[in-house]
């Protein structure tokens, strides 16, 4: 329905350096994104500004320079390393006489190419429709035309209004189907909790080596490549841990700085594997010069999806690219593992990783007896939904005495959401 550029085209890249740190993007990352999309970058245009220009995002002189570069290089598309407003996109397209994409549109296009499962395709389509809905004016040549002809006169619905209505209907349809997927995932998670099977979720910046590590641990054969967003659809596998038993390891989509909100919303069902995990393995490419920045970006997204309270074990990956670094475990003052140095590709330090996982998961279960007054029935209901009640009895005054056993991360999350101080309900033995 909408005009989209084809992979393999010639592109002019535009990168603006802003003085404000929150608006800064990485040019090298844009080039990797473009390469991942299968596009050939023929020219890179850079500039410095204090703030975006309201009409062209860049200044009018720089916009003319971009248009000249398009004509000179015979480019098919201009790709900005920044989010553009719909009006800025339209103005630039009118000037350059070619398709203009912003950072969000580029990431959406990569996701559309990579989606393999039914759920992944639905999630990408939802994100694309939400993004396109603000840019509908460019989708057709007849947008402002009133409907005419026998049987169509009267309401005067413009083609633009029709398109918007059709989009809303499609978005509602996708949301209903994704809701079903979410319920199926929820059932699987409840079954795993009943079986007291802990879940470990791999998180990290895109291209940090999560899928390579996942394959090394599980022999799953998941697609892994040195490109951004190689993994889109989540994969779950059972692993065996000493003293813990079976656990579920989940490989998830990588994060990126300024991840589009439409994508975070669309991938809610997928990201729930991360939200409900007992332990997060935060995989970091320590050979990357910007690894500290990437760690902050991942933690920002974890905060956004309400997963920041979950226990983290940092995996310092790709040590084979660093000099003088051997596999090891770093511990905190209490002796709990906080970092494991490994090379997933070279299979270095994997045994240390398993040792750290065993230690973290054996310490990450809490057991309490809670004394819940009758007026707090809502809390008791929440505990039953979490499948964490092992026994229940009544005190003489009518309070519930509830024995609970749950992952520390679930307890921390419950404490954060609860309106009362849960520690005051814990019975001291």
Brief descriptors of the model:
429 residues; alpha/beta; Rossmann fold; Alpha-Beta Plaits; 3 domains; seven-stranded mixed sheet; 13 helices; globular
What does this structure look like?
Helices cover 39% and strands 21% of the residues. The protein is an alpha/beta fold. The protein has three domains: 10-101, GTPase HflX, N-terminal domain (Rossmann fold), CATH 3.40.50.11060; 189-362, P-loop containing nucleotide triphosphate hydrolases (Rossmann fold, 3-Layer(aba) Sandwich), CATH 3.40.50.300; 365-428, Alpha-Beta Plaits (2-Layer Sandwich), CATH 3.30.70. The strands form three sheets. The protein has a seven-stranded mixed beta sheet with strand order 6-7-5-8-9-11-10, with helices on both faces. Strands 2-1-3-4 form a four-stranded parallel beta sheet, with helices on both faces. It has a three-stranded antiparallel beta sheet with strand order 12-14-13. Helix 1 (27-36) runs parallel beside helix 4 (103-114), helix 4 packs antiparallel against helix 5 and helix 5 packs antiparallel against helix 6. Monomer. Associates with the 50S ribosomal subunit. Residues 198-365 form the Hflx-type G domain. One of its GO terms (cellular component) is cytoplasm. It is found in: Cytoplasm.
